Automatic annotation (TrEMBL):
Monomer. One of its GO terms (molecular function) is aminocarboxymuconate-semialdehyde decarboxylase activity. The lineage of its organism: Eukaryota, Fungi, Dikarya, Ascomycota, Pezizomycotina. PANTHER family: 2-AMINO-3-CARBOXYLMUCONATE-6-SEMIALDEHYDE DECARBOXYLASE, 2-AMINO-3-CARBOXYMUCONATE-6-SEMIALDEHYDE DECARBOXYLASE. Pfam families: Amidohydro_2. Pathway: Secondary metabolite metabolism; quinolate metabolism. One of its GO terms (biological process) is secondary metabolic process. It is an enzyme of class 4 (lyase). It comes from the Eukaryota. GO terms for cellular component: cytosol. This is 2-amino-3-carboxymuconate-6-semialdehyde decarboxylase. It comes from Penicillium cataractarum. SUPFAM superfamilies: Metallo-dependent hydrolases. Residues 32-391 form the Amidohydrolase-related domain.
């Protein structure tokens, strides 16, 4: 595969727009951000509705107005008023800005940074896989109704992904069908593991079959916060759970799916993995070697298809987003999976993502401009996401 397959556009002012303080050219490339998160401005108090005692000691997520200290006195004041504090039970989790829950703020930031469309999915800690199924299913319905309402109110700017309570497969299939038929959501976001259960578990076959039947592509996102719960001393320092743990989680989830024959049994599935597939593609040579030298350990459930086979240029099952923060790594993953299977993803609005200018590396980085043609970058900025999500009817003029 030759990456720079046609004349690059690194010297073209029409294609290099990215800075938020510059007016956008009418010919600037169309951008669909596949990896963004949103939450409602408020949540029901599930601890009151369903009880607060949890087997694992973790409470329900609640949202509280952000308090700031003024002259030594805590108060709700000024510019901080619209921020929200997220709590798990009584434990503080993080403070989020209005762009995490206010569509108007989001659209202003999208306009300022050249993002035409966001694919919105819930904040992963709200998956609530560790909760009892009745309230978890109720929360999934609440979150999906919210995402659908944002998309319905702003159909040209937002495309929605559902969440489902995968600790119970039958409930998940029911919610998936509702999300597709009633809410018009275009795919589903899931975690890299479900309450300690890997994605290769046969019990998920019914869910994979439903995703195939309904043509619902799957966005897989890691759950770094769980690593600190399991072993604080190992993962708590240096932001290790997020910087090292998350890429490892994602690699493990890809490894289990590709090694277990899931895609042989369900060949129409489309998976997109966050954060460029984590550590999987840089480890592909090692994994393939393990498959070859110890098939008794690696290949016993593969049904004859190797990891390398799944990533050949014609494959249509595995996609990744572009969130690598490194042009050299982008070049490597393009060589491994092909540029037609990479979608723009920023992890907006969180600071570990490509912030404050989503898509900046693909659209304006000088090295990326030397490596990839304008057509290839346009595919990664929007065309590939249109294909992955099946949005050709909505964005016909931007298909490539």
């Amino acid at each position: 595969m030759t990456i720079n397959s046609s004349c690059c556009s690194c010297n073209s002012g029409q294609q290099r727009w990215a800075k938020s303080n510059e007016p956008r050219s009418a010919t600037a490339p169309f951008r669909i951000d596949m990896h963004t998160h949103i939450m409602p401005p408020n949540l029901p108090d599930f601890s009151k509705l369903y009880g607060s005692t949890e087997e694992n000691g973790e409470g329900w997520m609640t949202l509280r107005s952000h308090y700031v200290s003024t002259g030594g006195v805590s108060d709700l004041t000024g510019a901080e008023l619209n921020k929200v504090d997220m709590y798990v039970g009584e434990k503080f989790f993080r403070t989020v800005e209005p762009n995490c829950f206010d569509p108007v703020v989001r659209m202003k930031e999208m306009d300022a940074t050249g993002v035409d469309v966001q694919v919105i999915s819930t904040v992963p800690i709200l998956f609530s896989y560790d909760k009892p199924i009745e309230p978890a299913a109720a929360l999934a319905r609440y979150l999906n109704d919210h995402i659908a309402s944002v998309c319905r109110d702003n159909p040209q700017r937002f495309v929605g992904l559902a969440t489902v309570p995968l600790q119970d497969v039958s409930s998940s299939v029911a919610e998936l069908r509702r999300a597709k038929s009633e809410l018009g959501l275009k795919g589903v976001e899931i975690g890299t593991e479900i309450n300690g259960c890997s994605l290769d578990d046969p019990k998920f076959d019914l869910f994979w079959a439903a995703c195939e039947e309904l043509d619902m592509p799957i966005f897989v996102h890691p759950l770094g916060y769980e690593l600190e719960r399991e072993n604080k001393s190992r993962w708590g320092n240096y932001w290790s759970a997020w910087l090292i743990g998350m890429p490892s989680e994602t690699a493990l989830s890809i490894h289990t799916i590709l090694s277990s024959g899931v895609l042989v049994r369900h060949p129409k599935l489309r998976f997109c993995f966050a954060h460029a597939g984590g550590a999987y593609l840089p480890l592909l040579g090692r994994i393939q070697h393990g498959y070859d030298c110890r098939p008794d350990l690696v290949a016993h459930r593969s049904e004859g298809v190797s990891p390398q086979n799944y990533l050949e240029s014609h494959q249509h099952n595995i996609w990744i987003d572009s969130l690598v923060h490194d042009p050299d790594l982008l070049q490597l993953i393009c060589k491994k999976i092909g540029p037609n299977r990479i979608v723009m993803g920023s992890d907006y609005p969180f600071p570990l993502g490509e912030m404050p200018n989503p898509g900046e590396m693909l659209s304006s980085d000088a090295k990326v401009g030397e490596l990839f043609s304008s057509e290839t970058r346009a595919r990664m900025l929007a065309g590939n996401a249109i294909e992955f999500l099946g949005l050709g009817d909505m964005y016909q003029e931007h298909k490539i």
